[in-house]
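USER:
Try writing one entry.

ASSISTANT:
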Amino acid sequence: MRSPVVVAVAAVGGVLVGRVVASPFSVSDLLSYLPKPSLPTLQVPPQLAYSPNLPSPPSGMLYSSPPPPTLVSPASPLLRRSLDVGFKYQSQSIRFSEWLSLLTLCLAPLIAHLFVGVVEPTSLSGRIPWYQRICHYNPTSIAWRYFAITDRRCRAKGWTQRDLAATNAVFWDGSHWDGSQKIMIKKRDSATKVPDSHRVSLISKSVFQTLIVSLQGVQAIYVVAFYSRAHRVAPGHPISVVFYPLAVLGLLRLPAALWLTDEYGYREGEDPEPQKVSDGVELDQLPLHVQVLAMTGSFRADDDDLSWKFHSQGSRRGIAVRVAFLGTWLVLFVMAVLFTAQDFRSGVKNSLSTFASQVFYLFLIACTISFMSVYILRGRGNTTVIPCIETPIYKAYTYFLILLAVGFTVICGLETRRTTCGLYTTNPIDWGLDDVMCASYTTLYSYAPSDNKRTMHIILTGATGTVGSPVLTSLLASPLISQLSILSRRQFDLPTGDNLDPKKAKIIVHDDYVSYPEELLKGALSGAQGCIWAQGISQNEVNKEDYIRITYDFPMAAARAFATLSKPGGHFNFVYVSGEGADTTEKTFTFFGRIKGRAERDLLSLPTSDPSLSSLRIFNVRPGYVEPSPLRGRSFPYKVADCTLLPVMRRLSPGRVTPGGVLAKVLTDLATGDGEPLTGSGVEAEGRTLRSPGIRRLGDDPEGSEEAR
């Protein structure tokens, strides 16, 4: 009954922690944005200078406070990477039926590896306590058993059905475990049931078990190899795949597969006296001096010298087996380190589940190599039970491994969410990776793309703003976008990363957003099929005339001009980023609400008021308070609001807060979609206006889904 309690407590604790740290900013963040007091100038060597390119932490993540500028150097990757690891609770929208399927997928490799690799022990004295059994379920114990059986068979000078049975058996004498060569010889004639052959039959339970473990291991290797290729993004470590690496370790069963069986039985209790070798061994298999001793009855199985039966551990056979097994484990360790280094290199975001999973498997592999190396090098590899199984340190290691596995499984479960394409992931939606993850997912399982998932040419404005920045990242990562034209007043550096393709983007310097020359429309913008109008400004930063010009005149002129870009019989998606509070009746008391409402209303009327504009498909999107991702280009008042008001709003009124990554995904989907009206909650104006709850619902944000319902 202890395990369910531990899991329940850990789950509840994880939920509470997730709720607390789901807020993206803390007091330390607020302090970091306050004006800094002037300090005496200090000359710092270039190698210790502060790097301005430190990655900003993703929204909704738990991270450390920024260190003092003069103490962080570009050569300090550990400090920089630590900012990119965080926890986000996002499994609220997963239904009970889905949890059953996910847990089945989660536990399948674990159950197969443990219960296929662990045999039922034979007790020679009384009942075996549960705490003495549990160490056999340690993956290190299973790996040692596979090694020892392979080694024993390779070094054996003769091999019979009774040898096969005694080698697979594990004996408990009341105080100690025994799987030695000595007990094998001693108990070989005590078997009440022996296999039909000296190796497993082709049609047997053992072969079926090996097949299951092998298929799971091959599947895990295939998935890992698939996501290792360029331009493919793995879905993190959702709970359905947390034990995939354990399935890979299950392939270590293959070298011993021909000699793994449970088709045997032994009498309970001790034998009255040791068995004579002559009772169970063909004399012509023994050296001459052993044959003489056996016939006289003076040689018994409990003698220490077993050179008549096995080659030494230092023989070529023994060395080959040891080098092969230890070499395999070292290769696995190097691969685990390389994968970890790849995930935690500078600029790469990582969820807490990814970090916890990698820590677990690095710890498991490192400990396994350590234990196996010690006993192999000390010449104690002649037993199928790892020699330290009864030591306090190995028991502590086993219990800690169990707690670590439960802990990181709970973390992965709390971070698991479902994307719109049905893929489960632990990557937060704020990262804007859903499109490229879904593209990789559909490629992996050979799904045919739908008609509306064609590559497109999209126009973007406001690419450096709070809304435009995550949209730009989403468009660069989306495999649906083949060409991206960015209208901007100035050149700027495009974001880069493993999942981004800046080569498909072109920055077009454009100053007059009321006029669009013919050479621009027929040149750089030719063939465009959609536009995301993310350009905007606060009413407090300009006068009323300029605000009307930017908020109303600019998008109206652009929509009229871009309508000519559509092909005959086609359509052009124009997605206008408005805001909560917009009122198309212009009766609201806020100035921005009236102007944005006027822009929404007149944009929606364009396709019906002018036949030449009938190809336009207008969408008005009203985000709430946009949660920045990342915090760049924000004025000081907005930074203060982000650190103080945003956490409160997320809890009291989550429907009025729109994560930047969620908004970016929805805007990208609308710009690349079929232009048909939207349905469901949070939708107005006959499916053409989308409010904040609808944005979060369509973006598959768990909190938004609950708010929309």
